[in-house]
Design goal:
Elements lengths: L11 H8 L10 H8 L2 E7 L15 E8 L5 E7 L4 E5 L5 E4 L5 E6 L2 E6 L3 E8 L5 E9 L1
Parallel strand pairs: 1-2, 3-9
Antiparallel strand pairs: 4-7, 5-8, 6-7, 8-9
C-alpha cells in the first residue's frame, strides 16, 4: 500500500499521467476520466419529437461525452375519403406536402395544417415534409 504522506507528489493527476501513453489512448478510458475529473463519461441517445429535447447526465458523478440524435420516425397513415371530402393534418413542423397523383387527391398547406381533398376515385400517396425536407408523414389516400 502506498501512503501519500510519504510521497507528497503522488496525486491522482500524476497517477493518471503515469498510466497514459503518448497517443492518449488511455485518456479516453473511464478510469482516466474518473481519476482526472472525478466523473465518468456517459453516452446518450436522443429521440426528438418535433420539439426541443434537453438532456442531462444521469448522475452527479457523470458527464455527457457524446450524444447521438436519432431521426424522427416517419408516420404511415391510411385514410378513406369521398369525392369532394377533406381531411386536415395539423403539425407545427409542416413545411411542404405533395400528392403523387393530383387527379385523385390534392393537398394544400395553410399555416401548420395540410388539407387533403378527394378529387376522383382511386388511391394516391400524400407525403408531408418539414423545413429540412425530411419526410414526416406518408398518408395513403383512398378516394371512393
Amino acid at each position: 500500500m502506498i501512503y501519500t504522506f510519504q510521497y507528497p507528489n503522488f496525486t491522482t493527476l500524476r497517477y493518471a499521467e503515469y498510466m497514459c501513453d503518448r497517443d492518449g489512448d488511455i485518456s479516453r478510458m473511464p478510469t482516466y476520466q474518473w481519476l482526472v475529473f472525478g466523473k465518468l463519461p456517459e453516452s446518450q441517445t436522443l429521440y426528438p419529437a418535433y420539439s426541443e429535447v434537453y438532456s442531462t447526465a444521469n448522475g452527479a458523478n457523470k458527464y455527457i461525452s457524446d450524444v447521438t440524435v436519432e431521426p424522427i420516425p416517419v408516420t404511415n397513415t391510411s385514410v378513406s375519403l369521398a369525392v369532394g371530402a377533406t381531411i386536415a393534418v395539423t403539425n407545427p413542423a409542416i413545411h411542404d406536402a405533395i400528392s403523387s397523383d393530383l387527379a385523385i387527391a390534392t393537398v394544400s398547406i395553410v399555416g401548420t395544417t395540410a388539407t387533403i381533398t378527394g378529387v376522383a376515385a382511386g388511391t394516391t400517396t400524400v407525403t408531408i415534409r418539414d423545413a429540412a425536407e425530411d419526410t414526416m408523414q406518408i398518408i395513403t389516400v383512398t378516394v371512393a
